[in-house]
Amino acid sequence: MSLKCRFCGKQAVERLRQYRLSLCRECYVKFYERQVERTLKKYRVVKPGEKVLACISGGKDSSAMLTVMSKLSRTLNFELEALFIDLNIKNYSEKSFNLVKKLCRNLDVNLNIVKTVDYGVDLNRVQRRKVCSACGTVKRYVMNRFARENGFDCVATGHTSDDIVAFFFKNWLSGNLRWSTKFLPRTDGFDKVVTKIRPLYLLSERENALYCICKGLPFMSENCPHAPERDEWKDIIYEIERKKPGFRRSFVTNLIRYLTLTFEDIQEYKYCKLCGEVTTSDICAFCKLRERKNSLV
Ligand code: AMP
Ligand code: ZN
Hints:
binds adenosine monophosphate; six-stranded mixed sheet; two-stranded antiparallel sheet; alpha/beta; Rossmann fold; globular
């Protein structure tokens, strides 16, 4: 039995288990774009008038991100340009670049290109087993410096809820406690560090791939030759999601709530007017209780 789209009744392309929703191609595209728009509005990810640099690799996540952001830039009033970092990886960088060029041309988005060799780093000269971590370092450095030196207010990446959950577990289990603000959809910059935004924070890799397919976007389906065959954390997360649809999304949504609450509590403490202990209101809960008790006596 073929499934029907919940919104328009046409044949559905996918059953989205976490939303208990089957949608056709057109309705999925609208649904997906609305999810990103909601993320941007709810978490104030981009401010009107900001100049955003969308970093795109040619893969499904960042291609989807650029496409939605180019649409939303008109309604939410922000400026948008793209950046491709040419890492000089044989049989990979050139193919990715061609896809990125095509996508930016279709979307009419200005594409900036930086070659890492121009910054004095050639990944071909890095030891084989160290390439991935070197690549991450180089990308983060180039994105930030290029954005700052060219007047951009924020750097946007295609990180997904899968990335955030995996990143969370890896850091938590290795005892790295200096990570917290990297897990938010927007991390405000300071000094020479430019603001980082993650518009696809609530979406999954699967949802991004489906969006690219439904829209017929050009994207790179091959993985980087240096990337490990499997990311075990992603497999584990996928398995939990399969058994508990909606796990990823609830995880990251509550992570934001937890981190913002924690920071608010830390930032907004006061001293109790009666006893001088730390509190979030004028009179601490203990003194309120004591006063109430006294009034009863
Ligand atoms: P990754 O580190 O490969 O997981 O990529 C994380 C994000 O960095 C992607 O979603 C892109 O937004 C961005 N990115 C990755 N590779 C490149 C690249 N070669 N050029 C520009 N941005 C990139
Ligand atoms: Zn439909």
